[in-house]
Amino acid sequence: MPKVLRIINRLNLGGPTYNAAYLSRYLAPEFETMLVAGIKEDTEESSEYIVTEMGLKPVYIPEMRREINFKNDRIAYRKIVQLIKEFKPDIVHTHAAKAGTLGRLAASHMKVPVIIHTFHGHVFHSYFNPVKTQLFKYIERYLSSLSTRIIAISDIQKDELCLIHKVCKPSKTVVVPLGFDLSRFQFNQEEHRRNFRSEYFIEESTIAVCIIGRIVPVKNHELFIRAFANVKGQYKGKMVGIIVGDGEDRAKMELLAGELNLILSTPEKKIKGADLIFTSWIFDVERPLAGSDVVAMTSLNEGTPVSLIEAQAAGKPIVTTEVGGISNVILPGITALLSPSGDLNLFSENLKRLVEDASLRNSMKDKGWHFVRDKFHFERLVSDIKTLYGELLSEKR
C-alpha cells in the first residue's frame, strides 16, 4: 500500500483543512496517510474539529507557524525530515505556502519519489510590498523545480501561477477543484433560518446580507461595510448586514461602521434593531446562511472561496468582487453578480439589485445548488487525486 505524508500549514477555518481532511480520510484503503499540521495563529479560529469528526489524528509540529521565523522553521524542517525517515512515504503532498516550503525541501532532501504541492491561494498580490512579493516568487519557482506536480484549484489560478506570475510550468501543473460535503446545506433550512433570526433579532421581512470569513485586510471588509451603508441609505425596506468571522481588523471595521452611523451588535453586546451584526466565528455555518438572503464577498485576492461554494449549496444569491478563482466557483450573472476589485459604486449597484429584486434572488436559488453539487463534491475530489497519485507512482516505477 503506497504511503502519503500530507502536510498542511495549520488547522484554521477554511478550504485547505477540508481538502486535507477528506483526502486523508477517504483515500484509504488504497493509500495510507499520515496527516501533519502546524499551529494556527491566536487570531484565527481552529478547524481541528473537522479532522476530529473524521476520526483523524494529526501529527502536530508546533514550530510550523504562518510567520517566517528562521529558528522555528529550521526545527520544523528537521521534524519533517525525521517523519519522512520513520514513515517512508512514497508521496509527500503539501498544502499552502509554509507547509509547501518546508515539506518540499525536506522531501527533496530525503529523495521522496513523488512530491506534490497544492496552491489553495497565493500571496503574489495584495499581501506584501513588491520586493517581498518578488522574493516569494523566486522561492516558489525553486520549489516548483523540486515538485513532481503542482495542483491549482481552478483554471484561473493555474493561469495566474503559470502565465502571470510564472512560478510553475503549465506542463507540471494540473487543476483539481476542491471538494466538500454540501448536502448539509439543504437540510432543515427553515428551522435554521427561524432560529438564527430569532437569536439575532432579525424580522422575517428584513433582507439580511451576510459576509463570511476572516476580518483581515485582504478580505476588504471596508468595501462591504461602505456598500452596505450606501444601499441601506437608498432601500425603502429593512435590511441588516451580518459579518460572520473575526480577525485583526475587527476593531477597525467596528470603528468604520460607527463613522457611517450604523448601529452595531457585537458578540459581547447583542442589540435589537442593529444595522450591522458582528457574530464572530460560527462553526455550523449553515445557520447564518439559512438566515441570510444575500451572501457577499469583497476580497482583494482569493483561491477557491469556500463561503461562496457553501452559499450556492444553501441556495443564496451572491454579490462579489471578481478576483482570483472566484469566477470558477460561481456562474457569473446566473448565481452571482460580479464587480471589479475595489469598485464601490458597481458593488453597491449589484448589492442593491439583489436586495430590491426578490424574483432575481429566487431565480438564482436552485441554479446555485445544482452547479456546486456536481462540481465540488468531495467524492469527485478523492477520485481525481487517486487517479493523479496512481499515474505519478506508475511514472516513477
Concise account of the structure shown:
By secondary structure, this protein is α/β, with parallel strands linked by helices. 45% of the residues lie in helices and 17% in strands. It is built from 15 helices and 14 strands.
Q: How do the helices and strands line up, and which of them pair or pack?
A:
Layout: E1 3-10, H1 15-26, E2 32-38, H2 48-53, E3 59-60, H3 70-87, E4 91-95, H4 97-109, E5 114-119, H5 130-146, E6 149-152, H6 155-164, E7 173-175, H7 189-199, E8 207-212, H8 221-234, E9 239-244, H9 250-259, E10 264-265, E11 276-280, H10 286-291, E12 294-297, H11 306-313, E13 318-321, H12 326-329, E14 336-339, H13 344-356, H14 358-375, H15 378-396
Parallel strand pairs: 1-2, 1-4, 2-3, 4-5, 5-6, 6-7, 8-9, 8-12, 9-11, 10-11, 12-13, 13-14
Helix pairs in contact: 1-15, 3-4, 4-5, 8-13, 11-14
CATH hierarchy: architecture of the largest domain: 3-Layer(aba) Sandwich
CATH class of the largest domain: Alpha Beta
Label the structural class: alpha/beta
Low-confidence stretches: none
Q: Look at the structure and name the CATH superfamily of the largest domain.
A: Glycogen Phosphorylase B
Whole-number average pLDDT?
92
The number of strands is 14
Listing every helix as H and every strand as E from the N terminus to the C terminus, the arrangement reads: EHEHEHEHEHEHEHEHEHEEHEHEHEHHH
Stated plainly, the CATH topology of the largest domain is called: Rossmann fold
What characteristics describe this protein?
single chain; 397 residues; alpha/beta; Rossmann fold; 2 domains; seven-stranded parallel β-sheet; 15 helices; 14 strands; 17% strand; elongated
